[in-house]
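Reading group handout, session on sequence-to-structure problems. Before we discuss, look at one worked example. The prompt was deliberately terse, the way you'd type it at a terminal:

> structure Replication factor A C-terminal domain-containing protein

The input record follows.
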Amino acid sequence: MAIIMVTVDQYITDDGWWYLSCVCHEQVVPDSPAYYCERCNKHAGVSSYVSNELLNMVGKCYLFKVFSKVGAGCDGEKCHPISKINDDEELIEKFKRHNSEVIKLDME
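And the output record:
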């Protein structure tokens, strides 16, 4: 497990790395006019890719609790499941004081 501090800079919506999922987190398949979840064996309600809740994260700082064990199911890519997201300002400040290395990633 690792704790990572991030500031959400932007959402990249055109790279095809995302997929629509059911509330159980299983990928859904199109079944006109809805989407079907094979795990739940029912039609699933899904929202648009970037919800308002996610858009509101842009520009804010968070701590992510990430599993170090690599997950499967990402089209051959390595996936590190996030178990918790925290935006508590006091906890973030403590984290900053004890973990000073900053790396800026260019995702474009």
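Points for discussion. First: The two ends are 27 Å apart (CA to CA). Second: The mean pLDDT is 76.
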